[in-house]
Amino acid sequence: MTADFVALLATWCIATLRSATPLIFATLGETLTQRVGVINLGIEGEMLTGACVGFTVGVATGNPWLGLLAGALAGGALSLLHAGLVLGAGANQIGSGLAVWMIALGGTSFFGRALVGKQVTPLADLGSPLTDGIPFIGTVMAQATMAVPLAILATCFAAWWLAQTRPGLKWKAVGESARIAGENGIRATRVRVTAIVVGGLLAGFGGAVLSVDYTQTWAQEMTKGRGLVAVGLVIVARWKPALVLPVCLLFGLAEVSVLRIQSAGYAFSPHLLGTFPYLVVLVVLVSSHVFARRASAMPADLKAVFA
Amino acid sequence: MGEVLARFDAVTMQFGDLVAVDKASLEIRSGEVLAVLGENGAGKSTLMKLLYGVFPPTDGTIVVEGCPDGISGPAEALRQGIGMVFQHFSQLPALSVRDNLLLAWPKTPFWKSRRNRATGDVLSKLRDMAPAIDPDTPVHDLSVGEQQIVELVKVLNIQARIVILDEPTSVLTPAETDRLHGFICQLAADGVAVVLITHKLRDVEACADRIAVMRRGAIVDVSYRGERSMQEIVTLMMGKTVDRKLPSPQPATNPVDRLVLQYVSAQAAGMRLRDISLAVGRGEVVGVAGVAGNGQTLLAEVVAGIQPVTYGEVLLDGERIGRRRPGETLSTPLGYIPEQPRENATVEQLSLADNLALRDLAEGNRTDGSTSDLLCRFNVNPPVPDKRAGTLSGGNLQKLVSARELGTPRPAILACYPTMGLDLAAIELVYEHMFAQAAAGAAVLWISEDLDDLLAAAHRIAVIREGAIVALETNDGTLTRDRIGALMAGMASVSEAA
Amino acid sequence: MSTVMRFPLLASVLTAACFLALAAAFFAALGKPPFEMLSSLVVYALGDAYSISQTFAKMTPILLCALAVAVPGRLGLISVGAEGQLHAGAILGTGLVLLAPELPGVVLIPLMLIAAAIGGGLYGWVPGMLRARLDVNETIVTLLMNYVSVLLVSALVFGPWRDPASQGWPATMKFPQGAVLPAVPDTRIHLGLLVGVLLAVGLHLFFNHGKWAQKIRILAGNRKVGEMFGLSYAFWVVALMSVGGAIAGIAGIAEVSAIQGRLQPTISLGYGLTGFLVAWLARHQPLVILPISLFVGALVAGSDALQLFAKVPAASAVIMQGLLFATALAVPGLLARWRTYRDR
Q1: A2-306 adopts what CATH topology?
Q2: Low-confidence ranges of chain A (pLDDT < 50)
Q3: Residue A78: DSSP 8-state
């Protein structure tokens, strides 16, 4: 009885983690971008591009790691377009993000046609004779891949970066006010470009994790709004990398419940169930406004975008 | 006389059509306090921001000793030992004191954790100057005086050769001002070149070794201490002899309360008002004095019906004019002149005429065209009704708002720093109309940080500190600047005031 | 005051030139002769009566969605929810038709349009209320809500609303003749276009003349000042978000009724997003939206035909829209930069 329960708990835990992993990378990337005072809705496109390019390279080389790397680079490259439009041409951030999304949407559905039905070598799981047989841990390790610990490491690193390092301090300063940061001798534009590109790299990596590691297939528009969910979750996580992890797990849990209910054979419409993760994010977003004072956590320069 | 550390040579700075600095030449020498004196908008701050590298000059050169290539930006200026304390401090309110200091410190190591010994030195000067400030508090929780100390520490931390202070005394109590003057003289005695940007003669008298007077972007005079009388300097600053006086307060004849605050409490963004009760009578001028950031802005917005009260009432002639919940629809009957007119009182996208008629437009009425007369009466420049308000300078916007709020009779006037950013002629104009409203029976609530003005023209002066009215004194001629200053700083007890 | 004047001629011409250059480069990258492709794009969009009919058919939902974005946009709100509101309107409008398919057209069509407007309107009302009451960012909420109503359409047509006669194809029954919007004979130009044009003119009048126009302008320019003088920001947020949603809802039912003939999952080719881009290109000016939505409609219709006849991938329409919008965002800013640089 207890063993069954532990096993079930372990399956749910690892399924939630794996489902949340791509989102963790994307949300983390968006958090860092917004911390320097720039909102990037193009993150949806960057994830999609990362997924497409990552899958292509993964299929072509047979090496999933190369795929993930290529996905990250593709996301980073696309984010440069957003950086150029916003910082170079002074374009509206929302508009620029949507333009980037649109270009990625068209581009990936064009290049992605060749990928439908292809197989990719997945990442190896972390199971080993050492952990096999240990309750809970054994099950988790057997189903986890390196992407999961990487995501956790990345959030820890980002939290440390912002809180404890000199460049991280500069990032926070630029997000609060580019003008004042400039008066303190910081090159705000350079910092912003860096953060946007780092955000793009993480989003691209997350997208590649989604296609290469999680679904292991390519489908058109496969991110299904995960990038936009990430933008919403950044608000829920109050712009703190440390909170990205729990907040994304919530979305992962919602998605896993949907899959479990479907596979358990209940006669729910899969499409109706499919709305559940979005509704969860919306409810969490709204309740985070009801229960917390938002204004105190938002980087001050970001407020100007919505004014 | 010290060595020359920096030299301006026919420096000009243009923003579009506006010539902010006009062929200015000036030397900055070590061990000397140079006061740059001028009215609002004379170009003092712009001139010094050029030295600090905030923007490059349109024309002319700035030579800094030991830096032949010129200053490329604030980062370079900091490396060259030039530090600037901005009027609106260059601190990030959301970050801690420690982070703000580390940010401007060239020696901050990559790993800036407090466990890293190498970051310890950044706090040593803060501990010397203000041991009471906890380095982990966010800057927005500090008082303005404390923020200025942090700002000074930032400059001291870079071992500055040149220290530029932009209107440093405008936010301080009289006692804090005296302390700062002493500190400035000490810096100069240590061999630092201090540039003191100010429009207050009091600052000049207290510590300037050399005085540069600016008017309309040009340096009109440079003299050593004692070379000229203060009267001469004022004349140079204004471009004409000005005999400035305010109408001394006439005792209010009919003491009927019009504008009444009953137990008003409110809360907004890091500020709160606590249990404020105050009544302003018909024809009475009540001044509110206090150190900036003690709740004045919130008080103004609560009385104007912008921020809701959490408790209490604001009444005008017995009718409620305060907002009770955020979404409540409420139109204020007050004539309200807020600070920062661009953010608080005008719609930049609309024309001057529309901005003058905002009340009518908001009620859905058509407007008549009698606006150009009002624009002329209040010297709005340019007096073109069709011009968009966003194109006006801050001073002209404030005149526009004054025209709207004071141009027609009002039951009560609420003014919050109404003269900030105005030149003397405009200040006179605003005061003239404000007191004319009082003479016509309006109740005037007047928030100001200029104690001399308050003492000259208010019937009563309330002192606000930490969101509460700590004293309400009758201005019967015995009230002094020092007395108010002590109350502002919380050094005199309330019982003593009674 | 006209915004058309503030978007100077030079910038518009440069934007168009840059876009053409980019489009040509795009075709060249596909290995197609660029100039031939561009000219056939024009021919396929405007060459004959059929092409023109197609162009207007594509223009209609884009126009309505752009107006749906522009209405809250006039208050400074950034709503990206036209896609979801379009689907919500399609759902409620279709629901009414399924409920009373027997009604005569003169009754059914107005009722259907009203139901669709209510559906879309409610879908705009929710983010409007959240924004007004709780200050929840309307951009994020509308973006996420899009996915929900798109999935709801699928849930309905795969489930309870599926026509048993359609043999597994996920769609409702074919709309009865009385529920099909009247169209110009032998074309796909339907009543929706007329509604769109009338709305554009009406909204232009509403937002530029009269007392409400002034109130909205004051609130959009400075919320604090507006509220000080007795205007209710919350009221206008909810009102404009709802009205915008209603317009997008009409776009949804128009597509279902006049183009598809039944509710099915593919009623929108991303018209919501396209509409957003068009509204921004037009700076939320209803009369400027008219020509721009015509232009983008032609672009979409032309690339559709190009896909059929020149074997250009289907995605090129989306890519070209993205390029168009990126160019339109970049050119004015870069021009301004160059001007300040030159003036130094």
Answers
A1: ABC transporter involved in vitamin B12 uptake, BtuC (1.10.3470)
A2: 294
A3: H
